[in-house]
């Protein structure tokens, strides 16, 4: 199977079986999504969704968050990984949005990455989820699944993975392909014990092919 055929097989499967895939983070607007994504680094979406309601109740918008103090915000995210840094990032992010972006969450990757706590992955999530821009956020799931399936070749970094994926995925499908790959990695193509027996992508999967050869 050529790489082009592999991409076609994988994308066709997901289009048919997960046409409405979306983030599992719970949010109502770009501000809430940005807060949730910043908190989600090295943390599960489930834990983030348990934590954000109290934050959004106390700080319903970015203006309110910009007035938060460390001592007020920290207790609300104590259960999240790296709470010290994330508390500082959230307050810094809110202040920069108010001062530099007139209180509006930026809508481009170059602008978003200027914000404290926002790297390329987070910026790609915001722009693809909120605005359906053709940006591919690469987390550990996307990195692993892409390599195992054979969608990427010798990609050593998230950026290399991102560039290979956006080169081969039709532009109008990139924003949702991000969710397809994440969810597949979260529930089927697990890091330690992938559920190959349940996976419908086996015919296109390089990893599974090596398992067959080894058995």
From TrEMBL:
Binds 1 [4Fe-4S] cluster. One of its GO terms (molecular function) is metal ion binding. Its EC number is 4.2.99.18. SMART domains: ENDO3c, FES. Keywords: 4Fe-4S, DNA damage, DNA repair, DNA-binding, Endonuclease, Glycosidase, Hydrolase, Iron, Iron-sulfur, Lyase, Metal-binding, Nuclease. The keyword Iron applies. Pfam families: HHH (PF00633), HhH-GPD (PF00730). Its cofactor is [4Fe-4S] cluster. It is an enzyme of class 4 (lyase). [4Fe-4S] cluster binds at residues 189, 196, 199, 205. GO terms for biological process: base-excision repair, AP site formation. It catalyses: 2'-deoxyribonucleotide-(2'-deoxyribose 5'-phosphate)-2'-deoxyribonucleotide-DNA = a 3'-end 2'-deoxyribonucleotide-(2,3-dehydro-2,3-deoxyribose 5'-phosphate)-DNA + a 5'-end 5'-phospho-2'-deoxyribonucleoside-DNA + H(+). InterPro entries: DNA_glycosylase, Endonuclease3_FeS-loop_motif, Endouclease-III_FeS-bd_BS, HhH-GPD_domain, HhH_base_excis_C, HhH_motif, Nth. Residues 39-187 form the HhH-GPD domain. Belongs to the Nth/MutY family. DNA repair enzyme that has both DNA N-glycosylase activity and AP-lyase activity. The DNA N-glycosylase activity releases various damaged pyrimidines from DNA by cleaving the N-glycosidic bond, leaving an AP (apurinic/apyrimidinic) site. The AP-lyase activity cleaves the phosphodiester bond 3' to the AP site by a beta-elimination, leaving a 3'-terminal unsaturated sugar and a product with a terminal 5'-phosphate. This is Endonuclease III. It comes from Chitinophaga jiangningensis.
């Amino acid at each position: 199977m050529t790489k082009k055929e592999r991409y076609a097989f994988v994308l066709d499967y997901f289009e048919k079986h997960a046409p409405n895939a979306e983030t599992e983070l719970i949010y109502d607007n770009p501000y809430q999504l940005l807060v949730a994504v910043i908190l989600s680094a090295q943390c599960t979406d489930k834990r983030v969704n348990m934590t954000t309601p109290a934050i959004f109740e106390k700080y319903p918008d970015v203006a309110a968050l910009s007035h938060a103090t460390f001592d007020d915000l920290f207790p609300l995210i104590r259960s999240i990984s790296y709470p010290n840094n994330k508390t500082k990032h959230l307050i810094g992010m809110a202040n920069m949005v108010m001062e530099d972006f007139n209180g509006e969450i930026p809508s481009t990757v170059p602008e978003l990455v200027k914000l404290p706590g926002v790297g390329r992955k987070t910026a790609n999530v915001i722009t693809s989820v909120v605005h359906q821009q053709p940006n591919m956020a690469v987390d550990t799931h996307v990195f692993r699944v892409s390599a195992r399936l054979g969608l990427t070749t010798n990609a050593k970094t998230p950026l290399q993975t991102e560039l290979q994926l956006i080169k081969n995925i039709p532009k109008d499908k990139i924003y949702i392909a991000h969710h397809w790959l994440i969810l597949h990695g979260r529930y089927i193509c697990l890091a330690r014990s992938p559920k190959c027996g349940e996976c419908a992508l086996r015919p296109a999967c390089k990893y599974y092919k090596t398992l067959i050869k080894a058995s």
